[in-house]
């Protein structure tokens, strides 16, 4: 098999590759399943990759390890040590050409501008996804444009784009699965709560949006906190707030947390990242009985966790990295009986671990990197029989020298 060395490459996270957030995503051809070991020509390989990305708009399809290795062997993709997938430009170009030929996918501003002038093309359009460079003339999308697209559009995503929505469309977008809006947009061009098939949203909490009224199929939200609307921060919930299907919520750079989080009873993953003004964790975050992954990172004003934080008994992974003013962990930490991974790196004010820390019986990974004020281990630390990895980079010499003997013997320890 001939190896193709890419002159240049586009770096995509594996999550993006599998969740249809890349440019070649809208070929809907019915294709055969490819098998490992067969030397497909470039067109066939690209076609199959495109098919995976299309299907994953609504369903997350995991590419088998053997199949993925076959792509690597052909030098169409390769993985980096940091967990990224590098996709050859030939793959992108071929996939883009195929989708353009079908006339249902747009990734360039110029193509979108032309398409907006043709109602028939708009009616067939299934996806818009591109990053527009600043300095380009803004693109205006009117109610007429949105009405034409409303029946067929599955994916609408702009990042860093100069997009102007002139009017709001009141027709239901029955097929829309993924919606990505630039952080400077203050009002969505459609009624958010009525997007019946929407599964993923990325953008700000725009005017009128409320955590109490989310689309019924929405399972993932990535909120960028540049705009605050009155509805999202109103304490008064609607009389009959519908149940939410949301399982993943990412809040980035929020000045404050929106109301209604307590209604997200199915939430499994919660990320609070760079919420620089967050001083405390509200009690509503203790109501998530299904929460398995919690990340509260780079929240530099956070000083403590609630005393009953241990109520999160189903928590598997907890990341408090970069909470530089967090000085103590509550004694209820012992109740996190399902916890396997704990990151406390760069918690530079943390002076001690709870005395009952050894009650975390199935803890496997602990990262204390740059916790420079930690000087000693709790007496129960040696009870962590399942510990596999301990990171002590940037910690005090005393802490490194006094790691319990059984932990040293059975655990991989990173000192520097």
Task: Describe what this molecule looks like in 3D.
A hairpin with a 4-residue loop joins strand 2 and strand 3 (84-88). The protein has 416 residues and is an alpha/beta fold. Strands 4-5-7-9-10-11-12-13-14-15-16-17-18-19 form a 14-stranded parallel sheet. The chain has helices spanning 14-18, 42-55, 65-73, 89-102, 109-115, 119-124, 143-149, 397-401, 405-410; strands spanning 9-13, 77-79, 84-88, 105-106, 127-131, 139-141, 155-159, 163-165, 178-180, 200-203, 220-224, 248-252, 269-273, 293-297, 317-319, 341-343, 365-367, 389-391, 412-414. Mean pLDDT is 75; it is low at 1-64 and 98-103. The radius of gyration is 24 Å and the shape is elongated. Among the domains are: 9-98, no CATH class; 303-416, Ribonuclease Inhibitor (Leucine-rich repeat, LRR (right-handed beta-alpha superhelix), Alpha-Beta Horseshoe), CATH 3.80.10.10. The relative contact order is 0.06. It is 18% helix and 18% strand.
CATH superfamily of the domain at 303-416: Ribonuclease Inhibitor
CATH class of the domain at 303-416: Alpha Beta
Low-confidence stretches: 1-64, 98-103
Helical element count? 9
Give the overall pLDDT as a whole number: 75
Beta-strand segment tally: 19
Shape: elongated
């Amino acid at each position: 098999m001939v190896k193709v060395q890419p002159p240049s490459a586009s770096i995509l996270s594996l999550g993006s590759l599998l969740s249809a957030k890349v440019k070649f995503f809208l070929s809907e051809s019915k294709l055969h399943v490819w098998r490992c070991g067969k030397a497909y020509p470039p067109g066939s390989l690209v076609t199959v990759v495109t098919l995976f990305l299309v299907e994953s708009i609504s369903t997350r399809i995991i590419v088998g390890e053997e199949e993925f290795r076959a792509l690597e062997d052909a030098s169409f993709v390769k993985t980096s040590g940091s967990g990224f997938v590098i996709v050859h430009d030939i793959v992108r170009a071929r996939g883009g050409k195929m989708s353009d030929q079908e006339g249902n996918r747009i990734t360039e501003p110029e193509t979108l501008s032309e398409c907006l002038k043709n109602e028939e093309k708009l009616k067939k359009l299934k996806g818009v996804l591109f990053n527009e460079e600043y300095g380009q003339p803004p693109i205006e999308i009117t109610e007429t444009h949105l009405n034409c697209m409303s029946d067929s559009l599955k994916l609408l995503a702009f990042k860093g784009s100069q997009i102007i929505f002139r009017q709001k469309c009141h027709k239901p977008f029955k097929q829309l699965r993924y919606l990505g809006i630039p952080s400077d947009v203050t009002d969505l061009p459609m009624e958010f709560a009525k997007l019946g098939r929407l599964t993923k949203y990325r953008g700000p909490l725009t005017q009128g949006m409320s955590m109490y009224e989310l689309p019924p199929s929405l399972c993932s939200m990535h909120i960028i906190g540049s705009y605050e609307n009155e509805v999202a921060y109103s304490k008064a919930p609607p009389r009959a707030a519908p149940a939410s299907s949301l399982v993943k919520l990412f809040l980035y750079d929020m000045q404050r947390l929106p109301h209604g989080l307590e209604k997200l009873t199915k939430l499994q993953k919660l990320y609070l990242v760079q919420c620089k003004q967050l001083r405390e964790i509200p009690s509503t975050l203790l109501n998530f009985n299904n929460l398995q992954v919690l990340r509260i990172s780079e929240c530099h004003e956070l000083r403590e966790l609630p005393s009953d934080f241990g109520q999160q008994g189903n928590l598997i992974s907890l990341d408090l990295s970069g909470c530089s003013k967090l000085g103590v962990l509550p004694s209820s930490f012992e109740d996190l009986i399902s916890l396997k991974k704990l990151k406390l790196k760069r918690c530079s004010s943390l002076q001690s671990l709870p005395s009952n820390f050894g009650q975390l019986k199935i803890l496997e990974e602990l990262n204390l990197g740059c916790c420079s004020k930690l000087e000693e281990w709790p007496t129960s630390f040696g009870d962590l029989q399942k510990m596999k990895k301990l990171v002590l980079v940037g910690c005090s010499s005393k802490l490194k020298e006094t790691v319990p003997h059984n932990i040293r013997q059975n655990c991989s320890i990173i000192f520097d």
